[in-house]
Specification:
Layout: H1 11-19, H2 26-42, E1 62-68, E2 79-86, E3 89-97, H3 105-129, E4 138-142, H4 145-152, H5 170-176, E5 180-184, H6 193-196, H7 201-211
Length: about 210
Amino acid sequence: MWWRHLLRQPLAVTLSDLARVKKPTAAHEKLLRRAGDYTCVTTPDVKVHFQPDQNMRGREIETFVDASFNTCPDTSRSRSGVLLEFCKCPIIRNARYQKFVALSSTEAEYAASNDGTKETVWLRRVVSDIGFPQLGPTPIFCDNTAAIILANNAIATRVRTKHILRRLHYIREQTEQGIVKPVKIPGPENPTDFFTKVLGKRLFQKWRARFVR
């Protein structure tokens, strides 16, 4: 069953998926107990750290986005993953189901990029208020080439993407204004895979070490 893979995802994703089960069984209860054991027994000292160096290098915000297409077996909705780093430290990270059914992987990735852009615009204002104005556009790292093209060009993929909701074009507006800049990143190097997919042990531990230790 699909839910047997839940504990190879971040804890927040696991609990979110378990909370969506309408008729829980003994197997679901066992998974919930395993999640509690993972938190209280296996990783009691694991924490999120914000430890920039003395020079506060890496003052530029970096945003990573990803999506898993058609993840939910009940609603066919895709899951978006968003990660924002400042001074090489994770500031905002989330994984949530999209509010609509994406009709293609491009649309799902584009929606995730749109979510990341909204968080980026907000965080740029915050860090500017505390004395770290962003001098250039913030890179939005995405591993889907079609979504990047769509964010940069309203005409290039118009025929195949005319069904995409107008409200998802916020990233295109911010790109045109020079606030953000969509950037291609190879899938295996995208840390937001951690928030959207079931990973093997090696990759799971690799990305977990990036966020918590």
